[in-house]
Specification:
With about 750 residues, the protein is mainly beta. About 5% of the residues lie in helices and about 55% in strands. The protein has one domain: Maltoporin, Chain A, CATH 2.40.170.20.
Amino acid sequence: MKFLTKSLVMFALLLTMNLNIQAQDSAPTLAIEEIIVTARKKEESIQDVPMAVTAITDQLGESSVRRIEDIQAFAPNLFINRTPGIGSGAAITIRGVASLESDKSFEPSIGVVMDGMFLGTQSGVLLDNFDIERIEVLRGPQGTLFGKNTTGGILNIIRTPVSLTEVSVDASLTVGDFGRQDIKTVIQVPIIEDKLGVKIFAANIEHDGHVYNTYLDRHAGGDDKLNYGFALLWEPNDQLSLKLHHELMEDKSEQGVYVNRNVVGELACTITLIGFDPNNGCEKDATDGPDTVESDGSNFSDNEYESTIFTVNYDTENFLYTYIYSNRDMDEQNMQDFDGSAARLLRMNYFNDWEQTSHEFRVTSQFSEKFQFIAGIYDWEVDYVQNWDVFDLFYQLSRLGVGAWGAGDTLTGYGRDSYITGLPWESDLASNNGQTQKTESIAVFASIDWYLTDQLTLTAGFRWTEEEKDFLGGNAGVGYYPLRGEPRPPLYDPKPYQAKWDETTPKVGLRYQPNDDVMYYATYSEGFKSGGFFGRQANFNIDPSYEPEFVKNYEFGWKSTLMDGRMIFNGAIFRSEYDDKQESILIPVDLTNVATVVRNASSLEMDGIELELMYQVTEAWDLMVTYGYLKSEYANYFADLTGDGVITDNSNLVPRNTPENTFGITTSYTTQIGNGELKGRVSYRFRDEMESESQNRPEGSLDSIENVNATISYSVENYSITAWGRNLTDEREQRWSTIGGLTSRGWWNEPQTLGVTFKVSY
């Protein structure tokens, strides 16, 4: 591996230095089209940006790219997984950094920004590939311009622009395996030519799910989404631009399907072995597999997301002034059958009300070619309420004589007494935990580019952030029936917590551009993720607080345009040093309870290499190759990971989601047939083995995996038809998690799927 790494680095340096090498048949007409990005909150060519950034554009037009999770083949060291238990939730990993916890009190380490709106949570970020012009993957900490909670990177999503000149309609219908049916429409209408225009968009996404539940006698894990809205653009003169974007998404999808992985010794098996439940609860006797499960419950969602973004740009001769207001409301209910078996053991029902509001004002200089700056102020506020009901568990514990009833509860008429007297199982008996939190964050930021010479540029910036969180969490015990319409009881002895942090995150870098075709850069940057209070506690008498995490990133990179523009070869070598890295850990609390807690690892070190190659081989044939290498290890990790109160050295653990090697290759070929155009595209991705579970239990070790997607399309004038295939090699992989001592579960990736897409544009 060391030899391969060194060879790749030497190859990269030699290739970028040898700029005189030109192909004999090279021609300017075959040059790769320039890509404009806003990775630094201003428009510039991606080849001029001194940071590791990948822009995904044309690939979004492929039918095999259904959700943003499908873009991971096009950027190195990027992983996106659907997160069970969260409405349209995504666990996004960049350079081995991710937040894989679904609770809203634990903020993600990867920021997702859509048209200037920071989404703030993992819920609702698994966007469908719809009305998206470009996705920019910014790798490494982005604390200067984008702020806190971006210690690993950013997904910057840009919607399609509003046209002021042409009426247009883009519509598509997709049908495929497992009842997939997607309908998408975007309509552009100039109301006043060159002054006022509106874009109307709508999409309906349906899918039965690839898993058949034999207990429920139906397919499960499918999609049911409705997304619609509008964007209004007004440009009354050459200086002023105002844009209003408003959209709603109704998501009633199932959150995947849990597979029975319970083993002897866990409660799911115990209730079977002692004869309380005739249904099977143990893996060894289960019929569960990648496409079939036997589970008594479903994992449904009933979520609504409403977003508003208002953007004002005022362009003067010397300055560009920008103001962005955003608001996002989320109303979520997610029911999960945690045990994954036919045993009625553990169901959880989550209720979330989330509202975030942000204001950003910034100014970008335009008065000098030698000195440029961007500076601004950012304000972000969040209020949310989260409750979760636990069904069945306490009834089963009472039958076992464990006696897990909380303070203020009574056994009269249900629970253990019901079992003893032979009364029917009160299966909708529930317990409740809850939390509320308000977050206020304000930041001041600035970044300058000082062109010292024609070849050398100094970049420097900082961001000062102050954040305050007020948290209240508690338990309501057990003994009420929410499915019968009973109101949720008040929290029992709720515990308040409050904290404030402030931090300054700097960035400094040099960019050296010896000519128009190559650029080298070196940067030092820092990132900051705020501390907080983890809300999904089994006992709020235990302090739920955790400290902020910090990262220092050192990076050298290059960007080169070769062969008269036909080839682009970019790369980066980086080292990231994390202090107090936040890790979510599942630990037993007592005989009947487990809890997810957040611990701060002392230090984590990551070294890596990223390579990107784009090559226009001929006028008809193009090629894209990505490679990522990552070495990750805890330098110090002293913490209690078992719940016994003993601090141990856990530095030998392998950080999860950090495969050593990743590789992707995408190629397409286009030819004319008759009056139309035939185009084929194949995408291949390899990911090395890795750990998916924080404590490195054997069940959480994942083997290496390969994936192949392909499309072939034929288009004539305004019409096209595309046949597509996803996971053509039918590679299957199971992720696993446990609720210690109670139950274990897993879930599988999607199998091979085929389909057809019809498009019309005019």
